[in-house]
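Review form for a predicted model. The reviewer records the input and the model, then writes brief findings.
Reviewer: anonymous (R2)
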Amino acid sequence: MKKFYIAFIALFLAMIILPSAFVFLGEDRSFSDNENRMLQTAPELSSADVLSGRFQEKLTDYISDQFPARDVWTQLGTQIKKAAGFRDIGGAYLGSDGYYMEKITPESVDERKFALNLGLMNDFAKECGVPTSALLVPATGTVMSDKLPAHAVMYDAEAMYDTACAVLTDISVPDLYSALSADKSEQLYYRTDHHWTWYGAYTAYRAYMPDGAYEGQPELFSDSFLGTTYSKTLDPAAQCDCIYIAPVADTVKVNADGSDADFYYTAAATEKDKYKVFQGGNYGQIRISGGCDNGKTLLIIKDSFANSLVPFLTADFENIIMLDMRYYVGSAKQLVSDEGVDEILFVSEMSSLASDNNMVKLGF
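Model under review:
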């Protein structure tokens, strides 16, 4: 019996130690296609990082990110938890009708930073003196609350809209929560991704521009999309989403960070992140021209939700400049003056705005 316990302990320790050893012996992966994010590679040892605790944090992330067969273990863990009745797995709620919704609780939303960023946006609009609107996007679980599992908790989108309306005195704030909640005749959000679908983006477009000129019909781009919320669980039972795109005029031209680009990045059909079909992903600055001929210029300060919204706007603005403040280097304020911008539009998911550290750049 003693030998049995010794063997059991040895096996248990091997299961813990050997995978960690392979982490250090194997070749690092720098990017995860499934999670669509950069992975922590081997951290450099320095006394400053050790004393501050940053090295230990990076080392923990490194072992987690580089763990052998990480995706296989994630998938296995999901199946075990589902079998045990869990519907809150890996930061995603497993809802009804195949919805995997990002878990964003009230505690995870920094209301102070949300109000601070709203104030920076309002100051920017006031200083620019240009008509400005803000499309504040509610997360899937707030609009599709009927799909959430029992006892799931999401942040209060309506309360955050009240805060936005109180702070954004110089900015128009269309009520997207009400617009999206009132129109569920079509799929508004992807089931396996946090972004809105063609129809969700179109609903937002109509909330922003009730008399907008866009009249195109959606075209199927892919029927095999598995997005970011699926990647949190890698659930083998997940069903693929369809991505539809909005046709734009043949005269549309795109420049992304100084290089010519395609409006629709069709090579995304063969990649994991098929949402990249919209302008090829996120850049510091994207310039779009030629969708119409009215001389109007729109500046969009955005996150990735704007990528699938902008096709509709090409019918209303001859020139569109999109800035992602995470990557943009320059003065947005000076750009407004230099380019003769007619309108400004902020587009951001609300909880993302509440954790954004880049809106301070608007003051430059």
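Findings: Confidence is low (pLDDT under 50) at residues 10-15.
Further findings: The CA atoms of residues 287 and 321 lie 5 Å apart.
Recommendation: see findings above.
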